[in-house]
């Protein structure tokens, strides 16, 4: 009976986001009670932080690659079956749509020079990773953005408020607010007109 109760407790913890309970603050995971999160898809390390806000849904995977890294997700944001690879910091705002098959990474994973990555696999075999030569820069996805399926968001990119990333795009540079980009590398296609009276952060109608 004890084993059965223990298994039930583990299941409840894995599916805690689908139950109406008070906010969870457990170690490095902070989630609002109304958020729905596939907790078993989050692979964390010491001192890492995952935070998600009200009525957000997270169905993807998070791979915390270094200790102390953080992934912050705002309110009413949806992340489908996508992958977040975080070595430093990735921030996703409110009312963001992130479709399926998307990869977001705040680092290069390896050096571009073979001499500096020659031992990477051997170190992985031993459960280690040398970040000395790996470039890292935070990623920020601002409020109201929409990321189309199978897109790739690379390190150092800021996606502006209300921006739209076309399906299959590779985003290597910042995307201005209320701009549609697509392609590899992603390039501006057009701007998005807001509803009457709505303004961006600068106070200027788009």
Tell me what the structure shows:
- The protein is mainly beta and 206 residues long.
- It has helices at 2-14, 114-117, 120-125; strands spanning 24-26, 29-31, 36-37, 42-43, 49-52, 57-58, 61-64, 70-73, 78-79, 83-86, 89-92, 97-98, 103-105, 139-141, 146-147, 152-153, 158-159, 164-165, 170-171, 179-182, 187-191.
- Strands 3-6-9-12-15-18-20-21 form an eight-stranded mixed beta sheet, with no helix packed on it. The chain has a seven-stranded mixed beta sheet with strand order 1-2-5-8-11-14-17, with no helix packed on it.
- It starts with a helix and ends in a 15-residue tail after the last strand.
- Mean pLDDT is 86; it is low at 14-27 and 200-206.
Oligomeric composition of the shown chains: single chain
Span between N and C termini? 63 Å
Rounded to the nearest angstrom, the radius of gyration is 19 Å
Overall mean pLDDT stands at 86
Largest sheet: 8 strands, mixed
The proportion of strand residues reads 25-35%
**What structural class results from the helix and strand content?**
mainly beta
Based on Cα principal axes, name the global outline: globular
Number of strands: 21
